Amino acid sequence: MSAVAGGAVTLRAEGVAKAFVSGRVRTQVLDNLSLSIHAGELTLISGPSGCGKSTLLAILSGLQKVDTGRVFALDTALDQLDANALERFRLLHTGFVFQGFNLFPALSAREQVELPLHYLGVTKREARERAARSLEEVGLAHRMTLKPAELSGGEKQRVAIARALSKQPQLLFADEPTSALDAASGQVIIDILHRIARVHGTTVLCVSHDPRLIGHADRVLAMEDGRILSDRRMPAPIAAIEGTAS
Ligand SMILES: Nc1ncnc2c1ncn2[C@@H]1O[C@H](COP(=O)(O)OP(=O)(O)OP(=O)(O)O)[C@@H](O)[C@H]1O
Question: Boundaries of each ABC transporter domain copy (predicted)?
C-alpha cells in the first residue's frame, strides 16, 4: 500500500480523526488516518463523494482542526497553533485553488493576482512584475487586462492558479479544480499544477473525484470512508518526460 518516497516530506498526518455532529447525528469523517506528502510532486487524493477528501485537505492546510491526532506542515505542528498563527502560516506558505475560482468580478486578471501580494507587503512594482510572470507561466500573458466575465472557465481557473503561484507558496492546495471544466480545459489545469510541482519544487495536493486526473498525478491516494485504501506512484506522463507539458 505504500509508495516509494519522492522529495522531502512537507505534510504529515498522524492518527487523525475528525467527526461532525449535527443534531443527534454524528458522522465520523476521518478515522485514524496517517499519511505523508512530498515536495516537488502532484499528489491526488481521489475517492467517492462524501468520503472525506475535502475535510482532509482542510485539515492538512490548517483550515480545520482535528479532533485527535497530529498534523505537521513544513515541520510546523498545525494542531498546536491558535487561529492567528494559523492564518499567518497560511498567508506565508500556502496557496489555494478552488472549484469555483473565487475571483472578484470587477478586477482584471492582473489585479486578481496582485491583490494577495499587497497583504504580504510586496511593493506595488514587484507585485505587478510577479503577477505578470505568474500569468505568463499559466499561458495568460495575452489575457492580463480581462475581467472574469470575459474569460472562459479554464482561463478563470488559470488566473486562480497564477494568484496562488505569485505568492511563491511551498504548499499548494487544490479542491476539485477541474470539476467545473470540460475535459480539455481540465487536463490543461492538471498539467499546469503538475508542472508547478516539478519546476518550483512545490508540494501540490489536489483533491478530486474526477478519474481522468489519475494518470496525470505523480501519486494517487485512494480514499474511502475516511481511510486511505491505496497509495500508488504513477508512471511519469509522456508530456512531462519530453518536457512538453504546458
Ligand atoms: N461542516 C460540516 N458539518 C457537518 N458535516 C460535514 C461538514 N463538512 C463535511 N461534512 C460531512 O462530512 C462528510 C465528508 O465530507 P467531505 O466534503 O470531506 O467529502 P468529499 O469526499 O470531499 O466529498 P465531495 O467529493 O462530494 O466534495 C460528508 O458526509 C459531509 O456531509
Answer: 11-243
